[in-house]
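Predict the 3D structure for this chain.
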Amino acid sequence: MRKRLNDAMKDAMRAKDAPRLSTLRLINAAIKDRDIAARSEDNPDGVSDAEILSILAKMIKQRQESAKTYEEAGRIELGEREREEIKVIEEFLPKQLSEDEVQAAIKEVIAEVGASSIRDMGKVMGALKARYNGQMDFGKAGAAIKALLG
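Done. Predicted structure below.
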């Protein structure tokens, strides 16, 4: 994952693609921040690829919220810039699951862990995050789990 990011950054530099390069630098900075925190917690290797995926997912969510806020305030150009950054970040995430695939995955995990009530939601979410990190919106998945278990 790190190599892909660094290669993309070099390509953006060569192409003189400033907006893309800026976004890739933001991604690397976020990963380095998390690496530093991981090293202070006795993890000399830094963050794993799975943690990088969660960093990217968090960055996308932040940009979606910012874009929405900008657009509501009439700052369309700033909202568009946030959406362009989202497109660059999404290139490094695995393919997102469709609504039907998310529902099927939730039902499968509920059956596997033997979830029967809303109290089992933590088990279901933990299993989903382990298996589908970066492939689904866990906020929406949480609502779907509640609907199925509630």
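The domain at 2-90 is CATH 1.10.1510.10 (Hypothetical Protein Yqey; Chain: A; domain1).
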